[in-house]
Amino acid sequence: MAVLKILIFPDQRLRTVAKDVLEINDEVKKLSSDLLETMYKGNGIGLSATQVNVHKKVVVIDVSEEKNSPLFLINPKVEILDPEEKIHSEGCLSVPGFYEEVKRPRKIKITAIDLDGNEFSIEASDLLSVAVQHEMDHLEGRIFLDFLSNLKRQRIKQKLLKKFKVVV
Ligand code: GNR
Ligand code: NI
């Protein structure tokens, strides 16, 4: 396993749209385990391949307190079960130090492939629903800051550009 480098907003590579995984091979398994280690190291509840500059539809999530319930989502698809929107404070390992409120549909159904290549579906609400939607946004090149006003996003961008050496 290895801890990977996480791209920091406004790095343009975070805007790349990920491609479908065509085969669950050793490369995808290694990527998944590296993503998990990188996520735990950063105390995150989720991480997408996009954030480590690998543009494949691979996501890891663990919303458990004990950090012992990893969920691997390959080629995830989402269906909205309850469109009523709920506000949640979101953070992102690619936007370190900033937490902002985002509205998202409260209940979803996720269909994805696991690391054995089997399709599975789960229903999610609360933090899991938020985390999955946040990660699937990354795979499409979207960031939670896109839901904020231009002014707020610009302020955060300027602060991060000052603090980190971001490649724009
Ligand atoms: O660690 C994370 N916490 C979090 C909190 C609220 C909503 C979404 C998240 S995901 C984030 C890790 C991350 O950046 N994943 O892409
Ligand atoms: Ni994120």
Task: Explain what you see.
The protein has 168 residues and is an alpha+beta fold. The protein has one domain (12-164): Peptide Deformylase. It is 26% helix and 28% strand. The protein is built from three helices and five strands, in the order αβββββαα. It has helices at 26-41, 126-139, 150-163; strands at residues 46-48, 58-61, 71-90, 100-113, 119-124. Strands 1-2-3-4-5 form a five-stranded antiparallel β-sheet. A hairpin with a 5-residue loop joins strand 4 (100-113) and strand 5 (119-124). The model has no long low-confidence stretch (mean pLDDT 97). It binds ligand GNR and nickel (II) ion. Ligand GNR binds next to strand 1 and helix 2. The site of nickel (II) ion has 5 residues, from helix 2.
